Amino acid sequence: MKYISTRGDQTERRFCEILLEGLAPDGGLYLPVAYPQVDAATLARWRGLAYADLAFEILSLYIDDIPAADLKALVAKTYTPAVFGTEAIVPLRRLGDSGLLIEALSNGPTLAFKDMAMQLLGHLFEYELGRRGEQLNILGATSGDTGSAAEYAMRGKHGVRVFMLSPHGRMSAFQQAQMFSLQDANIHNIAVEGVFDDAQDIVKDVSNDLAFKRQYKIGTVNSINWARLLAQVVYYFAGYFQATKGNDEAVSFTVPSGNFGNVCAGHVARMMGLPIKHLVVATNENDVLDEFFRTGTYRVRGSAETHETSSPSMDISKASNFERFVFDLVGRDGARTKALFGDAIAREGAFTVSPAEFSAIAGYGFQSGRSTHADRLATIRGTDERFGDLIDTHTADGVKVAAEHVEPGVPMIVLETALPAKFAETIREAVGREPGRPAGLDGIEALPKRFTVMKPDTAAVKAFIQAHCAD
After folding, report:
1. Best exposed site among 5, 50, 291, 327 by fewest CB in 10 Å?
2. Catalytic residue among 72, 77, 114, 449
3. Does position 268 have pLDDT exceeding 90, yes or no?
């Protein structure tokens, strides 16, 4: 399997090359030259597999430069009940008579769906760096959950340092504590005085400085890294198998989304042949994606227009992974994709696809909707009262939007993106009580914290990396 850039560079690279690289040299994102196809016979063979075995089958279609025995061992070490709490890894539960099912993706170490890919990424990085005898400096940006998932996956890993940028003061107290309380020598937290998009822009700026990137061995764990998105493809298949009895049934998924990585994995699964009828994108008040799917216009917001909400992990106005879908939408035309995401965004901060391209969106199964703080409160309260099921704020955005798109006879699976404990303030506002916490996490907010506050300045972040690489 070979990979190319969304912005026209046709140089074909193998999986382990792009695993450590992040962005392509031309600033694009990597995608496979073609999506491998699965048919009904393959689906029948995969049905009933344990999650780790299913993950191995899917990942093997995309990874051919790691020996099969080694890949199987890495996957088996990742997806265990000890790490994710259940044999099913991603168990499905029904919300009463609502027509909705919730796929639990948040039972890992940091209580968020990011663990599903990040735990694997940690093992892949350590394995490949060990083979090469090299080190890697991971630079990432987080709006709340990616950071802690990455740090918990990479802490203590041989040959890996983590430099994680987050928007100063814009995460929940629990999210901040999960990251900033880590004292591991290879973990560095940088709180950027701005919004998530400012942090994400710095990561892209550094990644686009090829000389610096190569000198300091910069890699990324954000979902611009193909390996992370690939790992997320697996749970769409796992959810499908749990929700259906035969291989000709279709399901729909609703995905709370800000950066488009989670739902982009669903797009990949659908392109492979998984019978997904609709992929419903649920946004909060930062509704860049909902606006696109309604109008065909993708309009980036500045910091002043990026709302601080009670589903903070989706407070994003530049959806990095969206470029991967648009590349497919425009017929895999790298020059067209570069003109939209490079030239048009730089010049006007927005682009509008052609009428023909907009009409083609329906063929990819996408729908969308929007949720507000009032919607979140009502959904959390209603779900708790009707079904005895307490959900977090981001999952509430998904449940609210999913309810607007349910179709008779088509299971609607909502991806649970985090547990309520991470957003206790809003849960208290909604239901008047504290959400439960897994054992060992009481009092995490009071632990000593280690982080550095910085202006949104790429040069300053580079200097910080240089200084700590010399330690």
Report:
1. 50
2. 114
3. yes
